[in-house]
């Protein structure tokens, strides 16, 4: 009987010992897996940050090309307007030339008719005019009149020919201007076509980067899910921590209460992809430097640059509750520092992947993102 009890005790010890070893082995294995997943997740986040940097640079190049294309279009329009004006001036000048030539032809016809009459009648007409004078004074007057009429005819003809020459010179000048403008127009069109080609190339590059970015985001989501699962598995094996009992949180930016982007899925303002927004964005109304305060008392567990978050502060409030404050202009605390609720921890800004000055505020419970508005008063 005694031997049986000893045997039962040894079996029980062996079982519990194996359970203990199995428990320790499971936790160690999970922690090792957690370490690997976190390492892979960090590598993926770094790749995402690099890809986002490339996308931001390409976006700026596309915007620059768009501006240059618009400027080229404006220049083409200006040249076209000038060409239209020159063509109008050429049409007007051609009409003036036709009118000038018509006047010259009329005057020529008049002179030719007079010459034909003089040829047929000899100098009789002029002699009749002269011999019809009643006195010597009248004779001189008539002689002067005949001479002046002849001189005026010649002068008028010469003047009209000069005007025609001036108009022809003007037309030639306008045609030269049009030729020059045509050349300028062709040059600008060629430049615009080159810019469009470069723009298409950049758009293709951007589309490729977006696809790569989307794949990395999916990988990041998978790794986050895996990391969360491993964390939960470890928590199940380890002794549970008590729930947070610290009450509601203070508003992290006193005086700035407009939430410009709520918690939940949204279209990313920079990358144009549908993505979970893990916190809320509190707008500064275009202002830089407003005071950011700790939402509750706790210990600073991170203070520095955090990829797309920019200058970031993370505060551990105990009970697996952590708050995060991102896109700051400058930080006022350091890791390990204890802070009180309402204590200044940063100056607001627009660092990291940000479209303007605002605070990205997160609340994490047991490592999971939760809606901050559920905890803020």
TrEMBL record:
Record-linked Pfam families: CC_PcsB, Peptidase_M23
Coiled-coil features, chain-numbered ranges: 27-110, 157-236
Matches recorded under InterPro entries: Cell_wall_metabolism_enzyme (IPR050570), Dup_hybrid_motif (IPR011055), M23ase_b-sheet_dom (IPR016047), PcsB_CC (IPR057309)
CDD domains reported in the protein's UniProt record: M23_peptidase
Entry-linked Gene3D superfamilies: 6.10.250.3150, Glucose Permease (Domain IIA) (2.70.70.10)
GO molecular function: metalloendopeptidase activity
Keyword list, A-Z: Coiled coil, Signal
Record-annotated M23ase beta-sheet core domain positions: 276-372
Signal peptide span: 1-24
Peptidoglycan hydrolase PcsB coiled-coil domain mapped to chain residues: 99-170
Protein name, entry field: Peptidoglycan DD-metalloendopeptidase family protein
Organism: Anaeromonas frigoriresistens
